Amino acid sequence: MIYFLCGLLFLVGLSGILLKRNLIKIIISLTIIEYSLFMFLALVGYKHKAVPPIITSLTEKNNYVDPLPQALVLTAIVIGLATTALLVALAVRIYEKYGTFDIREIRKLKG
User: Fold this and answer.
1) Among 85, 95, 36, 46, which Cα is nearest to 66's?
2) 33 with 6: CB under 8 angstroms?
3) Does residue 81 lie in a domain region?
4) What domain range is 95 assigned to?
5) Domain harbouring 81, CATH code
6) Over 70: is that where the pLDDT of 77 sits?
């Protein structure tokens, strides 16, 4: 069920990218897609009734949570934040030059 919600959140972001014409809304939609993928990757490493992967005894047989997807998600969050900051900076520069966030208007100006 939770995987379905991740897919639904991905589709909401994808529809925002495909249907919206405002640059800020497109950036927000891209961020929604990133977060849906982060949630999915974190859920891949989750195991029900598992313990953190801290080994205190070599004789105990425990069900451990996989830490690799969590580490990958943390790295992807940092990269996603930098990408979003770059996109917002580009959108601000486009607004300063053309005076609009609308993609249709920017394409008409060609200058």
Assistant:
1) 46
2) no
3) yes
4) 2-51+64-109
5) 1.10.287.3510
6) yes
